[in-house]
Design a protein that fits this description.
heterodimer, A: 137 residues, mainly alpha, 6 helices, B: 185 residues
């Protein structure tokens, strides 16, 4: 069952994000109001340890589970797409209080109205696909 | 076991998120949740309209499996790993939300004023969810990633594009929270 490990990672991800309250609309509001350290602590410690993990992977030339070299594709150089796309994403993140991971997790917690948000997010992705060649990148 | 049922502090949750990223990279993949939206569009037949959606979605089945797991994880966390206590939000946050007319603040993960069935039955309530979802879906693909791909993985890999994207996330988020939410609520 090669997919079982991914299912387990997903379950663990869902539990961690609920128990940390990072899936909460309230926590996102609080973060953008700079009224609590909580979300900054989560993201900051994740990135701090993440830097160490990725440095270690590269430093010790660690292979992935299937024996291949670790592959972290570099992102295209640009400012416009990241700044403009990021700001559009941020507007939606602060309004929905959920980004693409938490949307699914919250559905699992029994918030069925999240299906509307997920469907709208698919529509947004679809419209991006249609307009991609016309947008500055 | 008691501590499992309480909310987990940031210094437990943050490192566990880094571990999830590490494990996915070790499995030869990456931590990126927004890609699934594109995969779902492709499965739904979006390739007929744009070649952005013409790719082998079966190569992304592992990521859809992570999504399925995340849904199950959410179910397990609220039904078996929660003691139902009220969130420990900052007092200023509660005051700000009371000014919006919110009630029962922090008693569940999401405000009924945004996600409650009686609110989404109104044109305004439904529009909020549709506009919010659309902005997330459009913005994340334009920016080439979301919180997992840029804020966690990209920053951990010291990639400048991800730092620019995260600055963008905050420009949009601050604009919404400080200027637009007070107009909406």
């Amino acid at each position: 069952m090669k997919f079982l490990k991914f299912l387990l990672v997903g379950i663990f991800f869902g539990i961690v994000l609920v128990k940390s309250e990072a899936v909460s609309w309230y926590r996102i509001f609080e973060m953008f109001k700079f009224q609590s350290f909580h979300m900054y602590g989560i993201i900051g410690s994740a990135v701090g340890l993440g830097i160490l993990f990725i440095w270690g992977l590269k430093k010790f030339n660690i292979k992935s589970i299937d024996g291949n070299a670790i592959n972290l594709p570099p992102k295209n150089k640009s400012v416009t797409r990241y700044l403009v796309g990021g700001a559009i994403f941020g507007l939606g993140w602060a309004l929905a209080g959920a980004c693409p991971g938490p949307m699914y997790i919250l559905l699992g917690t029994g918030v069925y109205s999240m299906l509307i948000v997920i469907a709208a997010a698919m529509l947004g992705t679809f419209v991006y696909g249609l307009l991609r060649d016309k947008l500055p990148h | 076991m008691e501590f499992l049922l309480k909310p987990w502090p940031w210094y437990v949750s943050g490192p566990l998120i880094a571990l999830i990223m590490f494990v996915l990279i070790y499995f030869g993949k990456t931590f990126g949740m927004s890609s699934n939206l594109r995969t779902l569009c492709t499965i739904g037949g979006a390739g007929k309209f744009s070649d952005f959606f013409r790719f082998d979605w079966k190569a992304q089945r592992w990521n859809l499996t992570v999504v399925l797991g995340a849904i199950i994880g959410g179910y397990i966390a609220v039904n078996f790993l929660s003691d139902g206590s009220t969130m420990n939000l900052s007092p200023e946050t509660i005051v700000d939300l009371q000014a919006f007319g919110f009630s029962n603040i922090g008693e569940s993960l999401l405000p009924t004023e945004v996600y409650g069935m009686e609110n989404i039955a109104t044109l305004k309530g439904m529009s909020i969810l549709i506009v919010a979802g659309f902005l997330v879906g459009f913005g994340t693909r334009y920016a080439g990633g979301c919180t997992s791909g840029h804020a966690i993985t990209g920053l951990s890999n010291l990639q400048l594009p991800s730092l620019i994207a995260v600055i963008g996330f905050f420009i949009g988020g601050l604009l919404m929270t400080h200027f637009l939410l007070p107009l909406i609520f």
